[in-house]
Structures are given as C-alpha cells and as structure tokens.
Amino acid sequence: MKHRTSDAHTLAAAHALGALEPGERTHFEAHLRACAACRQEAAEFEATTARLAAAVAQPPPAAAKPLVMAAIEEVRQLPPRVTATTSSAPAPARGLALRRRAVPLALAASVALALLGGLAVWQQQSGQDLRQQARQARGQLDEVGAVLAAPDARTVHGRAANGALTTVVASERQHKAVFAAGNLPAPGAGKTYQLWLDHDGAMRPAGFIDHDGTVVLTGEPTDASAVGLTLEPAGGSPRPTTEPLLLMPLPA
Question: What is the pTM of this model?
Fold first, then answer.
C-alpha cells in the first residue's frame, strides 16, 4: 500500500491499539523515527489506553477457566462473514479510512467490554455488599464515561515526583474532571494518596487514589487552576501536610 506523507500523522491511535496492518505498521514506525510529534502522540495514546484498561480491569472468577476449557472442544467456530461491495473506491483507501473512523469506536468498545465484564463478575457473586459495590462501581464508571465522551473534554498528561504517569480529563459542561494514574507506587502502611484542586492558591480536597486506576475528582474543577497529589495519613487531611508529588495545570 502506498502512503502519502500526511497519512502517517493520522495513524498514532491505530498504532497504539495494534490496529495497523503489517505494511502500515512498518511505514508508521519508520515515520516515528523522524517525527517527534507523532512519537509523543503515540506514547500518549498508549499510556491513556493502558490507564483506562487498568481502571476497569477485574480478576475473573476462579470457575471461569475450567468452564472455558471444557467448552472449547464442543463450540463450533463460525465461518468468517464476507459481504460483497460495489463501492468504486480502491480497497486500500477504504480500509485506511475505516480504520481511522474505527479508532475512537475501538477505544470506547474496549472500555465498555471491560466494564461489562467486570460488572458481570460482580453480579455473579452473592452477597448484598458485593451488589452494592457493583452499583457504586457502575455509577462511578458512568461518571467517568460521561467526562471522557463530553464534546468539550480536554486532556493533559504529567509525571509525579514518584514516577507515576498521570492524566487529567476535564469537561466544563460536565463540571467534572477525571484523574488517572499508572505506575503509582504503593502508598505504604498508614498512608494514602490524596488529590487536591488548586483554587487561587487554596488547596481543596478532591478525593483519593491508592493504586493505578481512574477516579472522578470531587469538588468543582471549573474554576480551579491545577490538580495536586500528595501523600497523606490514612483517611486524608483537610489541607496538604507534605510537598506535592504533582501539581499539574488543568487542561484549558
């Protein structure tokens, strides 16, 4: 397949998802060596995808593997579905255009499948506490999804002093912001990571995050200028008691 130079700049998201054909992947990886902007964009897509996946990942029930293994030999594989097309557009061009349109859909679908899978595991377990946790998780995931899907969603990436990779997605229309962290070290016994919103120099509590994942910040981020992260005693503090590990401007 022949590529125009401008095409390569549109393939960062598909590359991060592993959705490129071998020839396209080779072409794009060669392009990456000469394009710093695409290298950064591809890395950000990969980091964001990993954080979203980590936020919704759930361990499968212990009975899942033996049930699947027992059913493998009895389930017939369906043949591929092939549909005829009468479009006059060249096949390579159609494929590339479809992949570009599929990238946001693939991201949304992967998150949705992970959410549904995690909720299915919860719902198969007994106990009122677990059902309540499932309802709470569904509500939180709905909030996260609403921010990520907002038309005015803006994203900024950062790195904390302890090496954690962070992302904030904010929506003025939703009056909410989402904080995601990856490679976040364990806070240690009796400690927790506390989030803050900086309002004209006044740090206001905005929730907690104890491990890799995604949380919706509490409070009103619309008139805040930055998001902070500190290590605090378990249970949190009314104001920061340690130097910020991160003070990242909110996306404009």
Answer: 0.53
